[in-house]
Structure formats: structure tokens, C-alpha cells
Amino acid sequence: MKSLNWNKECLTLLNQTRLPMSVEFIECKDWRVVAEAIRRLEVRGAPAIGAAAAFGLVLGACELKDQKGDFWQKLLLVAEELRQTRPTAVNLFWAIDRMMSVASRFSADNSLSEVIEALEKEALAIANEDREVNKKISQYGATLFNQPGMSVLTHCNAGALATVDFGTALGVIRQAWSEKRIKRVFADETRPLLQGARLTAWELMQENIPVTLITDNMAGWVMKQNMVQAVIVGADRITLNGDVANKIGTYSVAVLAREHNIPFYVAAPVSTFDFAMDTGDDIPIEERNSQEITTFGGVSCAPEGVDVFNPAFDVTPNHLVSAIITEFGILKAPYHQAISQLKQQKGGK
Ligand code: MRU
Fold first, then answer.
1. Does ligand 1 lie within 6 Å of residue 137's CB atom?
2. How far apart are CA 236 and CA 334, in angstroms?
3. In testing the pocket of ligand 1, which one of 153, 156, 231, 250 has its CB within 8 Å of the most ligand atoms?
4. Domain architecture of the chain: domains with CATH
5. What share of the chain is helix, strand, coil (3-state, %, to 5)?
């Protein structure tokens, strides 16, 4: 099941807020619908929102082509609106920057059709590269699971749904499972929006990979009982020093893993690294609507008017991270050195 698909000026998104109860699609022919889908988490996961935003820009350019006024100025506004949809996953900004850098190669001498064609080509490249990148991450990552019959715990959903295809952390799990390196996955349900219960469990069950669902507050006990031998998660932003922003609850899992001497791995593409940010202290953490916590399935589960804190992400400090798996190999501490090298290799800003 693909998270998104582009076909003739229409971006089709698998509506992830409806899974696993029903499989529904959203047809986006207007960039505003894409922006709204990102905001509502109908498409979610760092690489998937980057790719969706790239296609959103193509839709914006198509619309502006037939309008009066300055195409370039208006395209910048569309890009800005798309940037505003979610603040934490750097892949969103990476994809939009990549698209705008393609647009900036053109001038008034070029036809707008040429610009749109180039933008569409770039968005497709972003989407197509994602699958290849995830395959490489998965191959590197699987080698870390080197004792037969391991069980692994994951948090949130870093699978095919969170990317264009295959997944990062779940990609590694898929690969390790196919190589018989792991025997079972423990999926944290991932409060408050249940990406683990609704999406990870669903994705793994589709492929008959044994998965056991637990609530987030069970992770420590599962570790204490020696039921998992490794943790692997995805990331929304990794800073130069190796701090990792990921779904809220990831930090707690990393602390628990350290206490139980269990390796804590992060799987992420280079597009998730923020080479311009030194430490995780500077990562903007999205805060979402209080109703995500005060209601459950639309039913109120907290006193009306209660004060709520609802950060959607947290930052795991680098000293709790055993390794970061990228498409260029496995990074280990000292991360500043390893990530600076990666930055040089990739010419990152
Ligand atoms: O709020 P979400 O569902 O977009 O959060 C997603 C995550 O935290 C994922 O773990 C992360 O984006 C990595 S996806 C490969």
C-alpha cells in the first residue's frame, strides 16, 4: 500500500487517519488540499510529507500558470504556506528547498510549461529516490541484528506509510525479518494518535511479520522481562551533534533502553539531517491540538477545560543513541565527527 501516488496533475494520498478501519484515498488537485492533508496527518512521517509537499508545489505552479500576476512571487507564497504545515520534520523544508532551487534555474525567458515540467520531474525524483534510499538503509541496518531470534521494539510508524515506500526503521525490520535475523516486533501504540497501533501493527500484519502491540507505558517492563533485544526508530530531524527528534515518547524509550543495556538505533535518510543546526535544543517541537489528548475516538476522556500539554515530538540526546543508520552506512559516536563527514560528502548546507 503506497502512501502517495502522482498521476497527471493529481496527487492521491492514502488517508492515514482512517487506517486501519478503512482504506480511503484523498485526491489532491489543489495544493491547498495537500497542505491541509499534511496538517491533519492524513499524510504523515517525515519523508512522506516532504514528497507530498513537493507535489503540492507542482500543483501550485500548475494553478498559477493560468493566473494573472507575478508567477514567481506567488510560487514563493505557495512554498511558504507549505512550509508552515508542520515545523519539526526537516524533510519538509529539504524537499521544498530542493524544488525551489530547481525553479530558480529558470527566468522570464523560459515558458512556464518548462518550469512546471522541471518541477514535476524533480518531485518524481524525490519520490523515486526515497524507495532506493530506504532499501539501502534497510540493508545496512539489518546487519546490526546479528544474534538469531532477536525481538525488536519500535515506536510510532517509520514504515512504508511514513515514506514513499518500504520505510526506514520498519524497512530495516522488513529486511532483518526476511533474513531471519529477527523473530518478532513489539510495537508501542504511540499515544496520542496511535501511529504504532493503527499503522505499524497494520503494516507488519499485512506482511505476516509477527507483531505484538503494547501500550507505551509497557515498554520498560517488556525490556525488564528480556522480551526485546534492540530498539529501532525513525527520525524527524537529526542535528550535527547526533541529537534525534522523533515522535513523542521516543526519548523515554531511549532512556529505558539504556537502563536495560539494550541498543537504541535510529534509521533515517540524509534528508532528515539538519546540517545547519548544531544541537537538538534548537529543533522546533510541534505542539498540537489539546483534543488529541482529551478525546479518544471522538469521545471525551478528560474533564472539560483541563490544561493540556501536547508536544508531538521529543529529542533524544546523542549519548543515548547506539547508531544512526543512513543510506551511506552506519554512523557511530562521536556523532559530530561522523555527521560533519557526511555533510562534507553530501555538500550539505
Ligand atoms: O506525527 P507523525 O506521525 O508525522 O510522526 C512521525 C514520526 O515521528 C516518524 O517516526 C518519523 O517521521 C520517521 S518516518 C520514516
1. no
2. 20
3. 156
4. 4-134 (1.20.120.420), 137-345 (3.40.50.10470)
5. 45, 15, 40
Determine if ligand 1 sits within 6 Å of the CB of residue 246: yes
Distance in angstroms (rounded) separating the CA atoms of residues 278 and 286: 19
Q: Are strands 299-300 and 237-239 parallel, antiparallel or unpaired?
A: unpaired
For residue 148, the model assigns a pLDDT of 82
- Rounded to the nearest whole angstrom, what is the distance from the C-alpha of residue 308 to the centroid of ligand 1? 22
Which three cell numbers mark 21? 478501519
Nearest to 242 by CA among 322, 170, 171, 313: 322
46-87 pLDDT per residue, tens:
999 999 999 999 999 999 998 988 999 999 999 999 999 999
Measured from the CB, is residue 238 less than 6 Å from ligand 1?
A: no
The string of pLDDT tens digits covering residues 281-331 is 999 999 999 999 999 988 999 999 999 999 999 999 999 999 999 999 999
What one-character-per-residue DSSP string does 13-74 give?
EE-TTTTTT---EEEE-SHHHHHHHHHTTSS-SHHHHHHHHHHHHHHHHHHHHTSSS-HHHH
- Any idea what DSSP says for residue 201? H
